[in-house]
Amino acid sequence: MKRLLTTLLLLLSFVLSSAKSQPAWLKDAVIYHIYPSTYMDSDGDGIGDLKGITSRLDYIRSCGFNCIWMSPCFASAWEDGGYDITDYYSVDPRFGTNDDLKALIGKAHAMGIKVLLDLVAGHTSDKHPWFKESCKAERNEYSDYYIWTVGKNYRKPGPKFVDNDHPRDGYYIRNFFEIQPALNYGYYNPKPNHHWEQGYDAEGPKAVRAELKKIIAYWCDMGADGFRVDMAQSLVKSDNKNRDGVRRLWNEIFEWYNAAYPENIMLSEWSNPEQSLSAGFNIDLLIHNGIGGKVYRPLVCETTDKMVPTDCYFNRAGRGQVRAAMEQYTDIYNTYRRLGGYASMPTNSHDIWRLSRMNRCTAEEQKVVITLFLTLPTPPIVYYGEEIGMRNLEYAPAKEGSVSSRNRSVCRTPMQWSTAKNAGFSTAAPEKLYLPVDNAPHFPNVAEQLTDPNSVLNYVTDLIALRKATPALGVEGEWRYVGDMDNPYPMIYARTLGEEQYVVVFNPADRTVSGSIAPMGKRAEWVFGNNRSLAKCKTNRAGHTFTMQPISVAIFKIGR
Ligand code: NOJ
Questions:
Q1: Sign of the CA dihedral 479, 480, 482, 484?
Q2: CA pair distance 305, 33, nearest whole angstrom
Q3: Alpha carbon distance 455, 530 (integer Å)
Q4: Which of 30, 309, 325, 514 could cross-link 547 (Cys pair, CB 3.0–4.6 Å)?
Q5: Measuring CA to CA, how many Å separate 5 from each of 15, 46, 237, 478?
Q6: Which ligand 1 atom is at minimum distance from the Cα of 84?
Q7: What does the pLDDT look like over 319-330, one tens digit per residue?
Q8: Given this model, what pLDDT does residue 264 score?
Q9: Which atom of ligand 1 is nearest to the CA of 120?
Q10: Alpha-carbon distance 292 to 273, whole Å?
């Protein structure tokens, strides 16, 4: 017994000492992700802009969001939706000026809203002046900002090397598209016979790291509260399995960043919390790729790359599974609790379909699925338009590099504010819009939903308010799967903190289902859901049995 106690104490002190401390505001953060080109157009040119976003901060706050993350708003060649930067120190003219960004941040702060920018750290546009210099045959300050081989008459060493007709005699490495040359942060273990591989401490990588810090400092000094870092895991090349190379880089950045900007945070596009949180990030984004994909895909989009929508869990066909996803999530949960920081699963993003895809097109289905993202033990991240259940617009044309493995325009269409012209997004002629607005006769929009007590918008607003008022449902509450993993409808997890106990019960299927859990207390009281009459709980000595009508979700409070 004594030995067990000592071990437990040791373990506890290890957990406490290894967990990184986070800025206090982060535990209450509810993040809203905006794609600036299509949020709100203030000057009638058909493209969203910063003044437009500023004019909607009241709305954002009224939903309960207290932090925004904007996809890149910097000068860009617009060949990958802004993720191809031509000047890290200037707002793109389509969005306004640096002063407009400063004004946006100032107003947001006055309203209690934090502002995160998007840091595209791994690559620039091939139209960036640094790259243009680096393409020159004669050596200059930027020659080693990128990774180049010597000699175009040799075979390319690998598929990431790009053929080009620049004066410099060599191939460069791309990070994503060919128009996105990788910045040179060096190689983990440069091979002596690979002349293009430089070490971490070579002059090129050192200069690029210094530049990265300069960019971060520039916007933080203007008031930004941090960044989401694009492809954060990609910077150091030929890294080992544990990503020791890139973690060393981020550790170095964070040592400086946390001291210089202790209240600021960084989110990583990494989807591997063990690596990203130990690298120093505050939140890792569990996306549809990497480890996060093992949770997101089977629950929300598909089980295989062949895309069988009816096989995902949140589908009215009710043919999904939860075991693999929930076991993976439990592992992720334990990882971030041990390391500090969070691993948040965004509802979706500018890269992946809206939740309404996979036939989840009714308001009730949207309420069921979005409840997942708002009741997990991490800061929620909601992509603009999900709070009203915007449709995934399959007919949206390709735009500015939207086509990668799929056309991402489907989830980048203009925010729908009202039934006015262009859904209230812009006064421009419809053919001038960045992307078309939803042409459905009754498209979801903010103005109508504000006045409808049963709207998705009011549901989301109320759920965010409940989460804020109920610590057990927030980041401090424990999370554990309590349903029967092999009878996955309904899916049930518990959120508890001290004496406070809640269970969240989901039935996305188009049939009535019931499921039991072990006893947690004497009474179960319905506190929230899409309709009180759709969810029932019977409690006896054996436990609690939930009977859920088709397409229903409920949060029950369990009294001891
Ligand atoms: C991830 C971004 O989310 C995506 O939109 C972009 O195309 C790639 N990174 C490349 O920057």
A1: positive
A2: 26
A3: 10
A4: 514
A5: 15, 65, 45, 22
A6: 11
A7: 999 999 999 999
A8: 98
A9: 11
A10: 9
* Cα 413 to averaged position of ligand 1 atoms, centre (Å): 17
For residue 271, give the nearest of 349, 210, 179, 371 by alpha carbon: 349
- Closest to 552 (Cα-Cα) out of 533, 534, 525: 534
The overall pTM is greater than 0.85: yes
Q: Which helix (H) or strand (E) holds 215?
A: helix 203-222
Which residue's CA is minimally distant from atom 2 of ligand 1?
230
Q: Is the CB of 118 under 6 A from ligand 1?
A: no
β strands within 95-240, DSSP E: 114-119, 161-162, 172-173, 226-229
Question: What is the residue-wise DSSP string for 89-106?
Answer: EEE-TTT--HHHHHHHHH
pLDDT of amino acid 8: 54
Cβ of 81 closer than 6 Å to ligand 1, yes or no, is yes
* Count of CB atoms situated within 10 Å of the CB of 111: 12
Q: Is the bond preceding residue 490 a cis peptide, omega within 30 degrees? A: yes
CA distances (Å), 338 to each of 245, 335, 485, 501, in order? Answer: 22, 5, 25, 22
Centre of ligand 1 to C-alpha 88, Å, is 16
Task: With CA atoms as reference, report the closest residue to 178 among 124, 117, 247, 236.
Answer: 124
Ligand 1 near 176 CB (within 6 A): yes
Q: What is the DSSP letter of 428?
A: S
R_g (Cα) of the chain, nearest Å: 24
pLDDT given at position 304: 60
Q: Distance, CA 223 to ligand 1 centroid (Å)?
A: 25
Instruction: Kindly give the parts of the chain with pLDDT less than 70.
Output: 1-19, 303-309
Spatial CA neighbour of 218 closest among 186, 255, 184, 257: 257
Q: Among positive and negative, which fits the CA dihedral 133, 135, 136, 137? A: positive
351 lines ligand 1 (CB under 6 A): yes
Task: Set out the domains of the chain in order of their start, with CATH numbers.
Answer: 2-122+205-467 (3.20.20.80), 123-182 (3.90.400.10), 478-559 (2.60.40.1180)
CB atoms within 10 A of CB 299: 25
Please report how many Cα atoms fall inside a 13 Å half-sphere around the Cα of residue 278, on the Cβ side: 14
| Residues shown for the chain | 560
Going across the sheet that includes 500-507, the strands are: 478-481, 491-497, 500-507, 552-559, 523-529
pLDDT for res 21: 83
The pLDDT assigned to 28 comes to 98
- Cα dist from 8 to 15, 303, 412, 478, whole Å: 10, 39, 49, 18
Residue in the block written with tokens 């991402």: 408
Nearest atom, ligand 1, residue 401 CA: 7
pLDDT reported for residue 17: 44
Q: What pLDDT is recorded for position 106?
A: 98
Q: Quick one: pLDDT at residue 359? A: 74
